[in-house]
Amino acid sequence: KLRNWWTNDTDKAFDVKKECLVDQYEGLEVKQVGKNVNGRLTLGENIADFGGVRSSHMAFEKYLTENNETQVLPGLPFTPLQLYWIFFGQSWCTVARDEKIRDKLLNDKHSPPQFRINGPLSNYEGFAKDFGCKPGDQMVKETQCRIW
């Protein structure tokens, strides 16, 4: 049995946060095919990506702190938190033909893989902190969207 347990003010505030994401994603072009993401179609999954990135990063930070983990991989100049982001990005590496990309842009509720990385990360202060990004850098959105 579904019922709305949010107040009208909470519901309105959430609508504003959702529109921030819709606007951002509708401005993203898949250059390979010259078409933009449908921010309304992908909204639910984009919200999930934002929440997943934030909560998993916070959990990893907590793990590192509680276990006093500071080891780095030999020969690599990255901290454990930077490696976390690198591995996250690698998990979305794909190659697709133009026809497949066009079909996904029209029908898939998920954003294209590159935007499942760059969308949440460029809006998340944890990523910026871990890599020392500053306002105006490519991976720091001028207008930050935050859902949760």
Automatic annotation (TrEMBL):
InterPro entries: MetalloPept_cat_dom_sf, Peptidase_M13, Peptidase_M13_C
Chain ranges of the Peptidase M13 C-terminal domain: 2-147
GO CC annotation terms, alphabetical: plasma membrane
Species this chain originates from: Tigriopus californicus
One Pfam family this sequence matches: Peptidase_M13
UniProt name for this protein: Peptidase M13 C-terminal domain-containing protein
Family affiliation: Belongs to the peptidase M13 family.
GO MF term list: metalloendopeptidase activity
